[in-house]
C-alpha cells in the first residue's frame, strides 16, 4: 500500500451521500428545495463525516421521471438556482473536505430535449441519427423496465412517422450512443462538469447505455473512463449495473479495471433483505462468498436503500414473495412486480436493534458505503403515496415542525411523511441532542469506518462459527485487521471466533463500537463472542507490533 493510494484512489474509502436538491432544504420559500438551501446544510453532512456527495439530477427537466428526463445537459433547473449557486455549493463542499459527484444520464434524454424535438421533424434532420428509429417494432424487442406503465420499448411518433426506442418511459427516447457525434456530445457534457469542479459521476443505467455486451460497446465505456481520467486525474465513475456478479465484472473492465471505477452491489443488497426476512444470515453470506475479486482501483458501493424501488429482481419468484410477505404485505407497498416502495425503518417496524444491525453491516462490508438522505435519522416513507417510487422521495426532516423545517411555503414539491415516521418523531434537530439517537449512531459508524481503511482496501473472509443466523467476517490488509459479527435472529448467540495466525500471546482485539464494553481482550488463537438478539459488534485486531488505536 503506497502513501499516494489513499488520496489518489479516494473512492476506496469514501462515505457517499445521495440527495436530491429539490427535497433537501428550501431557502427561498417557494416550496422547492434549492442549492442555497443545500449550501446551508453542508455542515450537517461534514459533521456526519460524509466525504462525497452524490447529487441527483438537478438539470432542466420536465420532471416526468424525477429529473432523470433531462432537457439540457449544461444547466441547472431555475427552481433550484443557477450555475453560480452550483459553483458555490461545490466550492463550499470542497472547503469542508467533501467531493461532489453528479448523475450522468445519457442513455436517454427527455423528449423535450431540443435534439429530439429537432430529430422528429424530418428524416433529414441533422439530429435524426441521435436517436434510434425503426419502421417496424423489431421481433426481438426486450420487455420494458416499467412493464406496468409501458407496453414495450418502441413507441410510434406521429410527427416522425417512425418508432423510436425508449428503454424506460416513452418520454425518454434512447440516444444512439453508437454514433460518433452522440459520443462527442456526451464527452462535451462530461468535460463541462469536470471543468466546473465536479469530482465524478454516478452513471445511470449503464447496461442500457452501452446497449449490448459485445466488444465495441465496452470499448465506449473504456473510452469514457479514459477521457474522464485525462480531463481530471482524480475523477471517478460510479455505475448503476443491476446484474449478477459475473456480468458486472465486464463493466469494471474485468481484471484491467479500466471501465467503471465503482459499481453498486445490487446482489448483496437484495440478498440482505432475504436474510432479514428469514432471520438467517445465509443468503447474504453465500452472496458475499461469491463476490468476485475486483481490480485494485475498483470498488463496490454498498447500500441499504436508494431513491428507486427496492428492487428484488435478482431473487427467485419464491424468494421475492418471502421478502414481500415480510416487508411489503400490502399491494400499495410494491411496484413493477419486483420492488418495494418503503424505506428500511418502516419495513422493520422501527425496531432500533434491527435497523442498527443493517447499517452496521453496510459500513463493515468491504467497499464504500452509500447513504440515501434521511437514512442517518431513520426516515420512513410516505405510505399515502401508494405504488410509487415517490413514497421515498419526501422532504428531508430537519425539525419537529409540521413543515419539517424544510420550507415555509404552503405548497411543497412533495408531501411530508405523516404519522410515526413524520418530523414530530424523526428529525435532525432532536437527534443532534440525543446521544442515543440514530444520527449519533450513524455518525459513530462513519467515524469508525473512516478510521479503518482496511474495510475499503482489505480482503474479505468469512469466519467460521456454528450459527447460521450469524455473519462473522474479517477484512484484512497490511493496514490492519477488522472483524465484525452480526446476528440476524431475535435471540442471543455465544460462540468462539478463531483468528488465523493469532496464536501468539500478544494479539489483542479491541471492541470498537460499544464504548461501555470497550475493553481489550487477549487473544489466544481466538476469542469468545456474545451477541444479543439482532446484535452487532466490531473489533480491531491489534497484531504484534501494530500501533493502532480504537
Ligand atoms: C435509473 C434511475 O435510478 C431511475 O430513477 C430512473 O427512472 C431510470 N434510471 C431511468 O433514468
Number of helices: 17
Quote the beta fraction: 15-25%
What top-tier CATH class of the largest domain fits best?
Answer: Alpha Beta
Instruction: Note the overall shape.
Output: globular
The overall pLDDT, averaged over residues, is 95
The amount of helix comes to 25-40%
How far do the termini sit from each other?
21 Å
Domain module count: 3
Uncertain spans: none
- The largest sheet has its strands arranged as 1-2-3-7-8-9-10-14
Named once each, the bound ligands are: 1-deoxynojirimycin
What does this protein look like?
By secondary structure, this protein is α/β, with parallel strands linked by helices. It folds into three domains: 367 residues, Glycosidases (TIM Barrel); 52 residues, Oligo-1,6-glucosidase, domain 2; 87 residues, Immunoglobulin-like (Sandwich), CATH 2.60.40. The chain is built from 17 helices and 22 strands. The protein has an eight-stranded parallel beta barrel with strand order 1-2-3-7-8-9-10-14, surrounded by four helices. Strand 16 and strand 17 form a beta hairpin. The longest helix is centred in the middle third of the chain and has 17 residues. The model has no long low-confidence stretch (mean pLDDT 95). The protein binds 1-deoxynojirimycin (NOJ). 1-deoxynojirimycin binds next to loops. One of its GO terms (biological process) is carbohydrate metabolic process. This is Trehalose synthase. Pfam families: Alpha-amylase, SupH-like_C. InterPro entries: GH, GH13_cat_dom, O16G_dom_2, SupH-like_C.
Amino acid at each position: 500500500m503506497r502513501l499516494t493510494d489513499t488520496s489518489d484512489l479516494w473512492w476506496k474509502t469514501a462515505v457517499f451521500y445521495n440527495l436530491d436538491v429539490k427535497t433537501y432544504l428550501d431557502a427561498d420559500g417557494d416550496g422547492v428545495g434549492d442549492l442555497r438551501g443545500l449550501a446551508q446544510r453542508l455542515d450537517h453532512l461534514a459533521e456526519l463525516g460524509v466525504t462525497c456527495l452524490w447529487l441527483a439530477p438537478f438539470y432542466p427537466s420536465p420532471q416526468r421521471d424525477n429529473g432523470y428526463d433531462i432537457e439540457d445537459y449544461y444547466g441547472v433547473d431555475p427552481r433550484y438556482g443557477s450555475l453560480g449557486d452550483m459553483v458555490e455549493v461545490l466550492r463550499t463542499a470542497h472547503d469542508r473536505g467533501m467531493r461532489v459527484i453528479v448523475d450522468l444520464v445519457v442513455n436517454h434524454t427527455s423528449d423535450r430535449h431540443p435534439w429530439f424535438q429537432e430529430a422528429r421533424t424530418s428524416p433529414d434532420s441533422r439530429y435524426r441519427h441521435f436517436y434510434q428509429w425503426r419502421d417496424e417494432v423489431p421481433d426481438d424487442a426486450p420487455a420494458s423496465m416499467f412493464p406496468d406503465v409501458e407496453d414495450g420499448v418502441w413507441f410510434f411518433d406521429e410527427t416522425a412517422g417512425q418508432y423510436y426506442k425508449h428503454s424506460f418511459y416513452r418520454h425518454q427516447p434512447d440516444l444512439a450512443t453508437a454514433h460518433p457525434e452522440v459520443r462527442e456530445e456526451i464527452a462535451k457534457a462530461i468535460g463541462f462538469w469536470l471543468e466546473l469542479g465536479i469530482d465524478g459521476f454516478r452513471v445511470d443505467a449503464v447496461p442500457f447505455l452501452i446497449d449490448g455486451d459485445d466488444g465495441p460497446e465496452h470499448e465506449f465505456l473504456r473510452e469514457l473512463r479514459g477521457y474522464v481520467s485525462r480531463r481530471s486525474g482524480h475523477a471517478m465513475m460510479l455505475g448503476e449495473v443491476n446484474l449478477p456478479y459475473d456480468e458486472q465484472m465486464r463493466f469494471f473492465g474485468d481484471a484491467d479495471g479500466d471501465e467503471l471505477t465503482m459499481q453498486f452491489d445490487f446482489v448483496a443488497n437484495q440478498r440482505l433483505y432475504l436474510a432479514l426476512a428469514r432471520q438467517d444470515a445465509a443468503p447474504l453470506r453465500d452472496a458475499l462468498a461469491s463476490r468476485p475479486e475486483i481490480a485494485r482501483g475498483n470498488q463496490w458501493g454498498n447500500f441499504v436503500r436508494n431513491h428507486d424501488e427496492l428492487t428484488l429482481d435478482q431473487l427467485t419468484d419464491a424468494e421475492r414473495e418471502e421478502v414481500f410477505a415480510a416487508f411489503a404485505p400490502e399491494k400499495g407497498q410494491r411496484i413493477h412486480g419486483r420492488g418495494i416502495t418503503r424505506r428500511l425503518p418502516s419495513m422493520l417496524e422501527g425496531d432500533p436493534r434491527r435497523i442498527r444491525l443493517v447499517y452496521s453491516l453496510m459500513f463493515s462490508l468491504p467497499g464504500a458505503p452509500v447513504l440515501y438522505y434521511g437514512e442517518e435519522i431513520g426516515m420512513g416513507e410516505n405510505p399515502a403515496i401508494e405504488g410509487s417510487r415517490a413514497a421515498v422521495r419526501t422532504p428531508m426532516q430537519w425539525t419537529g415542525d409540521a413543515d419539517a423545517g424544510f420550507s415555509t411555503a404552503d405548497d411543497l414539491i412533495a408531501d411530508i411523511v405523516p404519522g410515526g415516521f413524520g418530523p414530530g418523531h424523526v428529525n435532525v434537530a432532536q437527534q443532534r441532542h440525543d446521544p442515543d439517537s440514530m444520527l449519533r449512531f450513524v455518525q459513530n459508524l462513519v467515524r469508525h469506518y473512516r478510521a479503518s481503511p482496511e474495510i475499503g482496501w482489505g480482503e474479505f473472509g468469512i469466519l467460521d462459527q456454528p450459527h447460521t443466523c450469524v455473519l462473522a467476517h474479517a477484512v484484512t490488509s497490511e493496514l490492519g485487521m477488522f472483524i465484525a459479527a452480526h446476528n440476524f435472529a431475535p435471540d442471543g448467540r455465544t460462540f468462539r471466533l478463531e483468528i488465523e495466525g493469532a496464536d501468539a500471546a500478544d494479539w489483542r482485539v479491541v471492541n470498537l463500537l460499544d464504548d461501555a464494553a470497550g475493553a481489550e481482550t487477549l487473544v489466544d488463537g481466538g476469542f469468545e463472542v456474545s451477541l444479543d438478539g439482532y446484535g452487532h459488534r466490531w473489533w480491531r485486531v491489534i497484531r504484534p507490533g501494530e500501533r493502532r488505536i480504537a
